[in-house]
């Protein structure tokens, strides 16, 4: 059954809250924040003036089909009203509440980090690592994900959901609305309207929400087993929203799977890494037809804006999520009759290509009835982060060194001069302190 995923009617209030206001949120606040209204990605696109190629609601995969659970549902004997008059397959009825007990595991990696830290590159490397890591566990277990052998990660279906690509594909422009296509005067860009200006933050958030909802639609349709949500997710309120959506999916008895969220934070504070990443960004789809000087200048402004809004991940976020989901589980049944709606969650980080050890703050939590496959996948990701420098970081470090120290021809020298002028000590100090 194709389904849509809800967006809380109070999201506008969420996004108007101060950045750190959610860092001390209680579990009850998290539960109350679970989505209660049914708004599809199509509605989201309409709300920000976007159109899709298919306007027929009957043919759209985002057409609402079944309601999501709200905190009201949870507190009122967990009853649900479904207009289809059919119960989920392989389900049982508890207090008038149908729950599929045979839902298998899916995984969502929530990338987190400022622009130009290497998130997208590391996302691809993580998939490469998992595809090449054909590990096996207890063969007496039922093979997950339709794999020929249990825990054969090479057979999983992986997908990266990049919010920037969604923005470029759905917006009526790319990075800007171009009023004057002449770039002869690189100092005159008054004809552009910056999508990344703080005053346009709601539009940017809507693109992220559409991306997340596309991800959830594909998971529920069993098109992907391991999804990576590639966005900055650099504010506490954004991460809170994402985790609420994943919890809402797990709590919906008509969802087909159980999602384990893994936050993967990518940090970069090495000056040459930052310069090199900004240099590479100047050739992406936002800037491929723009002058180099303009591209570097513009992206550096974007990075500075993100940095001013950045909220580091704190353990209280993790603890609040654990407490909230534990409290929700306790509403179901006595311990010997637990309904399996959560498997576990984790937080990992990679700092400066893994040169700096960040494993002291890595966090994992598995619920007592968690099956083996989520534990295995999470531990495999843990191994990836701990060994990242050896696996991929050293090679990238050599590429950066080569860029700054070898084959300095006239064209490269001009680009290095631009980088040194714009990404200077004052700029680096402003984004690193």
TrEMBL record:
<dbReference type="GO" id="GO:0006110">
    <property type="term" value="P:regulation of glycolytic process"/>
</dbReference>
<keyword id="KW-0547">Nucleotide-binding</keyword>
<dbReference type="InterPro" id="IPR027417">
    <property type="entry name" value="P-loop_NTPase"/>
</dbReference>
<keyword id="KW-0067">ATP-binding</keyword>
<dbReference type="GO" id="GO:0006000">
    <property type="term" value="P:fructose metabolic process"/>
</dbReference>
<dbReference type="GO" id="GO:0003873">
    <property type="term" value="F:6-phosphofructo-2-kinase activity"/>
</dbReference>
<feature type="compositionally biased region" description="Low complexity">
    <location>
        <begin position="51"/>
        <end position="91"/>
    </location>
</feature>
<dbReference type="GO" id="GO:0006003">
    <property type="term" value="P:fructose 2,6-bisphosphate metabolic process"/>
</dbReference>
<feature type="region of interest" description="Disordered">
    <location>
        <begin position="48"/>
        <end position="91"/>
    </location>
</feature>
<dbReference type="InterPro" id="IPR003094">
    <property type="entry name" value="6Pfruct_kin"/>
</dbReference>
<dbReference type="GO" id="GO:0005829">
    <property type="term" value="C:cytosol"/>
</dbReference>
<dbReference type="GO" id="GO:0005524">
    <property type="term" value="F:ATP binding"/>
</dbReference>
<protein>
    <recommendedName>
        <fullName>6-phosphofructo-2-kinase domain-containing protein</fullName>
    </recommendedName>
</protein>
<feature type="domain" description="6-phosphofructo-2-kinase">
    <location>
        <begin position="98"/>
        <end position="323"/>
    </location>
</feature>
<dbReference type="GO" id="GO:0004331">
    <property type="term" value="F:fructose-2,6-bisphosphate 2-phosphatase activity"/>
</dbReference>
<dbReference type="Pfam" id="PF01591">
    <property type="entry name" value="6PF2K"/>
</dbReference>
<dbReference type="InterPro" id="IPR013079">
    <property type="entry name" value="6Phosfructo_kin"/>
</dbReference>
């Amino acid at each position: 059954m194709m389904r849509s995923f809800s967006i809380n009617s109070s999201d506008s209030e969420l996004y108007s809250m101060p950045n750190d206001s959610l860092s001390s949120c209680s579990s009850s606040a998290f539960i109350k924040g679970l989505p209660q209204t049914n708004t599809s990605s199509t509605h989201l696109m309409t709300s920000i003036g976007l159109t899709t190629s298919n306007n027929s609601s009957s043919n759209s995969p985002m057409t609402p089909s079944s309601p999501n659970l709200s905190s009201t549902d949870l507190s009122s004997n967990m009853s649900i009203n479904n207009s289809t008059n059919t119960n989920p397959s392989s389900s049982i009825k508890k207090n008038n509440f149908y729950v599929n007990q045979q839902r298998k595991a899916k995984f969502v990696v929530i990338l987190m980090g400022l622009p130009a830290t290497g998130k997208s590159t590391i996302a691809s490397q993580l998939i490469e690592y998992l595809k090449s890591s054909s590990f096996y566990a207890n063969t007496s277990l039922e093979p997950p994900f339709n794999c020929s052998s249990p825990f054969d990660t090479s057979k999983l279906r992986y997908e990266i959901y990049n919010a920037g690509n969604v923005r470029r594909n759905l917006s009526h422009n790319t990075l800007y609305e171009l009023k004057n296509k002449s770039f002869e005067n690189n100092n005159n860009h008054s004809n552009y309207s910056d999508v990344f200006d703080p005053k346009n933050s709601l539009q940017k958030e809507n693109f992220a929400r559409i991306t997340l909802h596309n991800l959830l639609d594909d998971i529920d349709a069993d098109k992907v087993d391991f999804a990576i949500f590639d966005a900055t997710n650099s504010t506490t309120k954004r991460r809170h929203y994402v985790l609420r959506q994943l919890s809402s999916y797990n709590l919906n008895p008509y969802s087909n799977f159980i999602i384990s969220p893994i936050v993967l934070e990518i940090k970069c504070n090495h000056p040459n890494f930052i310069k090199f990443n900004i240099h590479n960004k100047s050739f992406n789809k936002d800037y491929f037809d723009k002058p180099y000087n303009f591209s570097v200048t513009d992206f550096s402004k974007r990075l500075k804006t993100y940095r001013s809004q950045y909220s580091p991940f704190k353990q209280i976020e993790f603890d609040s999520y654990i407490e909230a989901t534990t409290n929700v589980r306790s509403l179901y049944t006595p311990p010997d009759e637990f309904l399996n709606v959560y498997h576990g969650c984790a937080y990992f980080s990679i700092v400066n290509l893994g040169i700096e050890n960040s494993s002291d703050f890595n966090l994992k939590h598995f619920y007592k009835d968690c099956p083996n496959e989520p534990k295995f996948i999470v531990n495999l990701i843990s191994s990836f982060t701990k060994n990242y420098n050896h696996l991929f970081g050293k090679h990238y470090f050599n590429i950066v060194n080569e860029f700054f120290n070898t084959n300095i021809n006239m064209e490269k020298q001009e680009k290095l001069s631009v980088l040194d002028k714009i990404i200077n000590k004052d700029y680096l100090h402003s984004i690193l302190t």
